[in-house]
Amino acid sequence: DAKTTQPNSMESNEEEPVHLPCNHSTISGTDYIHWYRQLPSQGPEYVIHGLTSNVNNRMASLAIAEDRKSSTLILHRATLRDAAVYYCILREKQIGTGANSKLTFGKGITLSVRP
Amino acid sequence: NAGVTQTPKFRILKIGQSMTLQCTQDMNHNYMYWYRQDPGMGLKLIYYSVGAGITDKGEVPNGYNVSRSTTEDFPLRLELAAPSQTSVYFCASSYNYGYTFGSGTRLTVV
Fold first, then answer.
1. Helix (H, G, I), strand (E, B), or coil: what is residue B84?
2. CB-based contact A44 B90, cutoff 8 Å
3. What is the C-alpha to C-alpha distance for residues B91 and B108, in angstroms, rounded to an integer?
4. Which residues in chain A are contacts of B104 at CB distance < 8 A?
5. What is the number of H-type helices and E-type strands within chain B?
6. Of B93, B99, B103, B106, which to mutate for an interface test with A (greatest number of A Cβ within 10 Å)?
7. Of B94, B97, B104, the CB nearest to A43
8. Residue B60: pLDDT band with limits 50, 70, 90
9. Is B40 exposed, middle or buried (0-12, 13-18, 19+ CB in 10 A)?
10. Could you report how far apart the first and last alpha carbons of chain B are, in Å?
11. Min CA distance, A115 vs chain B (Å)?
């Protein structure tokens, strides 16, 4: 599986935007970029995913570099509830039975939000 | 919808005991997964299933067994518990692009 590189931690202030970077220099053409987050004492939850174009949803935005070797998860206005571990994951496009649909988690980036 | 339900939430086992971690989903997802998460680490895949009757090993399958007799249920069995299996266990299911995770089972083996 292609790997991603994220900083260990980041701090932000409440109500300010947060940009979480992710490097994936060995990404292949069929890899989707997925982001999950894990709040304290909870299971991970899906945040957003994309292939080539920037993506927006109610939780966040995903900005993907033109060469796809890096991406940035953008939280437009951080709240205390956004303090979590954020995982950037590459996932192969599902083909056939989906045997290649597994997610491989790294250590992620720990986001702290200051009031 | 309840989503993915895991039971129990907490359990303490003695070395050599066995137990089954239960996982049920009500979203009719074909794909289901078991992960474990050790303190300060990311999740590691134990076993997964792409549909009823089909299971396969993940990254760390030793010491565990699974079965998938129905779409809804994907139990994880520990036969001879060892201290190295102390961890938080997460079950997940997926249909297409997003995984839905359960709230986890915190297992301690003493």
1. helix
2. yes
3. 17
4. 41-43
5. 0, 11
6. B99
7. B104
8. very high
9. exposed
10. 36
11. 24
Contacts of B43 in chain A (CB under 8 A): 44, 105
CA dihedral B53, B59, B64, B66 (to 10 degrees): -10
A99: helix, strand or coil:
coil
Bridge partner residues of B76 (DSSP) = B21, B66
Closest to A110 measured CA to CA, from B40, B101, B98, B88 = B40
* Amino acid at residue number A31: D
Q: Lowest-confidence range among A90-104, B19-33, B75-89?
A: A90-104
The identity of residue B42, as a single letter, is G
CB B25 within 8 A of CB B32: yes
pLDDT tens sequence across A27-76? 988 889 999 999 998 999 999 999 999 999 999 999 999 999 999 999 99
- Alpha-carbon Rg for chain A, nearest whole angstrom, is 14
Cβ atoms of A92 and A34 within 8 Å: the answer is no
* Residue of B104, B34, B41 lying closest to A41 (CA atoms): B104
